Fold each of these.
Amino acid sequence: MVFKNEKYSVVSVTGKLLILLFILCILTGCNQPNNQLSQMQSKTDSLEKQLDKTYKPGLGEFMTGIQLHHAKLWFAGQNQNWPLADFEIHEIQESLDDIEEFCKDRPEVKSIGMLKSSIDSVTGAISQRNLQSFKNSFSALTNTCNNCHKATDHGFNVVVIPTNPPVSNQDFRVPH
């Protein structure tokens, strides 16, 4: 019997060791995902810091681009180059969309919506290929730009209908 007790005792100790080993494996295994989670969090933090330092254009850069497209739009329309005019009005709209996405923190961005009806009017004139309608809607767009500037305390930035092409290396006439 003593032997049997010793056997049970040995089995009991071995069983306890196996159970303890099993528990340690589980705890070690549970700790592994925490290490992976910690590493992933560290990588995420590092990427967020890098993103914070990534260049994103400011409102001024977008507005300068819009100014160029505004002038090119005028000369395309004046020459009834409707495909180019259509391209330029869409470039302006794309820039406005980018401003809303990348310059959300700027209070001026809230006023950009006032340009929508003027953009739509110019787009309509282009699709109708109507020069007089284009001139009228372009003038309204220009006035709306200035009203937006005034509404955002940038009234010192006055946009006008251009008198000279903005670039000398582009022909605004319809290609033959």
Amino acid sequence: MKCHQTGKLYVLSLCDDIATHPEGAWVEHWQPRPGFDQPQRKLSFMMPVPGSPYQVAADVFDETTTMEQLNKISRRK
């Protein structure tokens, strides 16, 4: 899946990030959103499922939360 603004494959970026952050990783990308003329900022989070070969991912449209804020709350131990 590609970012509509940069053309980068953001899912590959998430996979690379969870290799160094097994507690999970966030990535910002831009995607079409119903009701908007231009792609909107979307944030995706991925983390490994403990004891399995799987990862789980979720995303949300968000214009205000910084990546720093997201990393801070998701990397708590």
Amino acid sequence: MSSDEKSLVSRGEVLKRLAVVPAAALGVAAGMSPAQAADNKKQFKYQDKPGAHGQKCSGCHLFKPPSGCQVVTGKISPNGWCVAWVKK
């Protein structure tokens, strides 16, 4: 296998894993009590500043403009970040 083929396999594996993140995050959110669901920012390690490599909520597939998220409850910043972040 050439190094290009190995690279493609690695990228494919990464994409498969990224597809699992939102599903897993939604599954965790669905299993929470109403009290836990009311404030799950800590669970998803939400922060009001960008994550690594400039990742922001506004660039996430789960972001709901102007200040919502499909996974993190409550008002969030478009410049924030959490562990459920998935590139648009």
Amino acid sequence: MFNGKTKSDMPGDVSVGTSTSLIGAGTTMKGDITSNGDLRIDGTLVGNIHCSAKVVIGAGGVVQGDINGQQADIMGKVTGTIKVKDLLQLKGGSHLNGNIQAAKLQIEPQANFNGECHMTAPAVEHSSNGKAAPEIKREIKHAEVAAG
């Protein structure tokens, strides 16, 4: 409008699905979020998250709802079910009240987790002979982890 250049001509144009969305500290949001890119919550969310990439809940972040994503790093407080297809990390100082379903789980010593944990192998893996490897299921029921 002002200089004759279109939006696509401008430098730093970010393609859809490759950026990180942020709910900043001091922000409270009610409703579900669906994202194709990474998502970071440093504020408060009352609702569910559906993300096809990585979800990060910062140290001051609070989520009251379910989280579904590819990966997740939790440093804040979550009340709800977390389902990730790959790695879930519960960092020191995090508080999780809810169930977990993940292929890989890492819990740091100062993390607090109350709920059930169901671990399954990631998507179908192929063995060296080209055939699908059998699915491996690991399950932990009624896991309560609290490090002080």
